[in-house]
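[Automated response] Your request has been received and processed.

Submitted sequence:
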Amino acid sequence: MSSTLVSNIAELVTNSNPDLGIINDAAFVIENGKVVWVGSAKSAPATDSKIDARGGTVTPGFVDSHTHAVFAGDRSADYLARMSGGSYSSGGINTTVQATRSATVEELRTQTRRIVEQARSSGTTTLEIKSGYGLDIATEKKILKVAREFTTETTFLGAHVVPKDAKSRDEYVNLVKGEMLDACVDLAKWIDVFCDSSAFTVDEARDILKAGIAKGLKGRIHGNQLGDTGGADLAAELKLASVDHCTHVSDKTLEALAANGVVATLLPGAEFFTRSPYPDARRYFKAGVTVALASDCNPGSSFMTSMPVIMSMAVRDMHFTPAQALYAATMGGAKALQRADIGHLTIGAKADFVLWDAPSHLHIPYRMGEIAADVHISHD
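Generated structure:
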């Protein structure tokens, strides 16, 4: 079994605690794709090979726990309309649905590979991918099959919106929690529902989520993006892994999320691209809620993959400290995916890490995605 020493690290972020567990003049050792030793460089053991961090900063790889990376078509017209004064609603999703239904598997694979490679280049080592641009059985399966080529964190989102060609709302809800779920359950790890105005009601979301959970899927929810419409409260009620967006939420609901161990996954890219108000993260931290940051990569309301830019938005517009933003983009995402093996660089963790050409982690949000990232992903 060969071992590798990563050394000459000015600042190592281990995430052993929410203060980042920083070690200066640090080193760590990898064996069989896992971290087996962490400490001061002067105490490092002998190894078979070495990686020189060149006096830079090393962090865990980003864990992007919310993406819609498998899709076809172009939504730049939506962007132009919003930048010209139009408002955001979920209606544009149906535009992507039509294009994705028409796309071949190879076309979707090529597009997804491009997006995943872009994410990797800026430091993302784990990402979740949802369905939700099919809204029929065949295309939802097609999306999930492609997603599984790129990640183990796949999410069934048949309840994204009610498609335009549905005969009735009730019939579509029954399809999602019945035949569509049955067709997709073996391709997904998670089930998700967009519970908000113009999407699904709390009662509909509850029924769909319970159906998926009964089939062995883990639950998460899009909630409270467009208003305080009950999705976050449902997340607390069902003790879901995460409520994503979570933009409009009361103090009482924040307390419920904290009490029930629900991660609040904030998506500043969506606020940026839709010119919507940003939530104040200080309220979430004060309430004791675990917070994650994710890209929400999608063609309509957040077409981006760069987690360093997401961190910059969070620090500037959502009142995160740089340390809070980095922790949320790594360990927070891992907690949103209920993964204990990623998001940190302590003994036993997967050796997913990024070498940054910078003297400290402060430069990641400070430089807004312009630092060179040397990304290493474990293939244990």
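Summary generated for your ticket: Residues 90 and 198 are 7 Å apart (CA to CA). The chain has two domains: 3-61+343-376, 62-336.
If you did not submit this request, please reply to this message.
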